Amino acid sequence: MSTTNPDNHADLSDARLIFLHIPKTGGTTFLHLLRDLYPRQTHFVRNGDWRDQQAQVRAIKPSRAAKIRVFMGHTPFGLHEILPGAWLSVTILRHPVSRIASLFHHVRQDPSHHLYARTIGRGMDMAAFASSYAGRAVDNHQTRLLAGGPLGMDPLPGKLTDEALQTALEHIARPDTLVGLQERLDETLAYFAERFGWGSLGAIESHRVSGEATSVCAIDDATREAVETCSPMDMRLYEAARARVEDAMGATPAP
User: What single string gives the DSSP state of each residue in 213-246?
Assistant: First the structure.
């Protein structure tokens, strides 16, 4: 499958995008923005395992597929491999401690969440939640999704290998992948707007799913160290993504 090279001087105004939405990274705000920018030209890939998501895409009628400019969803890297033509993969990462904290608060606020009974319902605090491996979302989830395909969706919690991390690192370094950071969301969206020719975005409405925002600095040292210990692959992936973002947008202090 051909690729589009998004170097800093390429015209990407006609690019077709795949938004790999990693949960709890500010992606819902970006998802709504894409729907506004590409009315009737977006397609949401429903949650499911990798085989199911591939089947969803393959089942799209050719007349509809020809009109799609943006695919989006909680889908792992690799959807471009079954699509005709050139596509750019776009994603937003978040510091793993902050992402786990956001997920923890989200689950705590929603007793109907599928992770609640196995974690919050058993009295777990954030550190215990991070080490519980209660589901893929808790276990180096950013690495899982960016490793792609079966590596991203199918392994049991706690079963990721160094191969998954190396694959994820290779994927975010590809010339047809653009990466942003939740900690620099406004700058990220402005950078995407510049690259894709969207013009000035003006005020962007936030669509935060969880009612509580958590920065890394607000978490006590012991909890932070516990979460980092449970997320070693995501920590390495995040640092690599931050380096790429700083190369594209300039440096910013560490969170």
Answer: ---GGGS-HHHHHHHHHH-HHHHHHHHHHHHHHH
